[in-house]
Amino acid sequence: MIELMIDALLGVVYIVVAGIIVTVGWRLQWALRHFTNKNIMTPATVIEDKPSVSIVIPARNEDHAMTDCLQSALQTTYPKVEFIVMDDASADKTSSLIKAFAHDGVRFIEGHQLPAEWLGKNYALHRLVGEASGTYVLFMDVDTRLSPESVERMVAYAEQEQANMVSIMPRREDGLRLGTIFSPLRYFWEIIFHTPAKPAVASSAWLVRKSIFMDSFDGFKGMKDVVQPESKVAALFASQQTYRFLISTPSVGITYTKKWSSQVETSIRLLYPLLGARVAHSLIALLDLLIVLSPVLILATGFVVGWNVHHIVAGVLWLGFVVIYGTYTRRVWKKGWLLGAILWNFSVIQELILIVKSTIQYKRNKITWKGRHIPLPSELRR
Questions:
Q1: What is the DSSP string of 39-83?
Q2: Helices marked H in the chain — which ranges?
Q3: Is the dihedral of CA 330, 333, 336, 339 positive or negative?
Q4: CA triplet 357, 361, 363: central angle to 5 degrees?
Q5: Running DSSP on this structure, what letter comes out for residue 149?
Q6: pLDDT, tens digit, for every residue of 220-259?
Q7: pLDDT per residue over 141-163, tens digit each?
């Protein structure tokens, strides 16, 4: 009787897991089709009136990446571009590194004391967009790298799509590094759970038409403590059908080199708010991830009780997840995608830990980012 009950329970688990595999696989294929520009992007040279672009970069304690970031950005072939970087009260050499590029045309903005109710990055973005004079503003993180053609292709794409916002998910091209192989599943979830109301978005590089953005949002005043303000911007423009999201390709040339520790810190800062800042939602997410892990957990029992048909089924289901994640990693990584796919279960376990840490630290009011306390956004407090 007990064996029959176990068999029945496992049968239900298999059906649920198979359903998840089919759903996630279908959504991934849909995303890879829709978020890839299949045609060669119209070169900027064919745009009669080349709109100007302001590349703006907020920086705080970024001396490990500041020089490489600016060197890559300054290689742009786009003719009408300005560079503005704000040092947000860094305690390292970030300020002097930015100033060293003054002769290349990089404008340095010194950070002010952070006003009440503002998150540091949001205030930096607010000041930067106020300083920008371009038709378009490209918000870029210090860990992002541009190819010489990236700006012109983003602008050309925005123009031909008549988009008020274009967000680019960066590629990883730095090979077998900890930050690549064990990268948190942040962008994977972004594209899997994309909906028109909550569109996929990337913070690494996003382009907006400044006049429309300022008319719609008045800078970041209405997003002072929002942990992912680009999501609110994307949602509004998506409702107006003027938002586009792309997964970067070699021709787009937008990549990133974020360290594993920084990715983990970012995930902890984002996950609980993105789950609606409810413990119940965190628990549901944890349960879902445990279901995703169930095939490998069943496989593990084979070493204890011996192998049977259940382990064959679990192995097939595990392989299904590996194929799905391998399809994703092959698309977004230049190297190491197969190893990353095989380590899928470790990525899921890491995500479980990150959700727990994000939930506990927000509930204890212990979240920090670059040395500053991060409170739960006001709109999510209850």
A1: SPPPPGGG-SS---EEEEEEESS-TTTHHHHHHHHTT---SSEEE
A2: 2-34, 66-73, 94-99, 120-131, 150-161, 178-181, 186-192, 210-217, 229-239, 260-274, 279-305, 309-332, 337-342, 344-363
A3: negative
A4: 120
A5: T
A6: 999 999 999 999 999 999 999 999 999 999 889 999 988 8
A7: 999 999 999 999 999 999 989 99
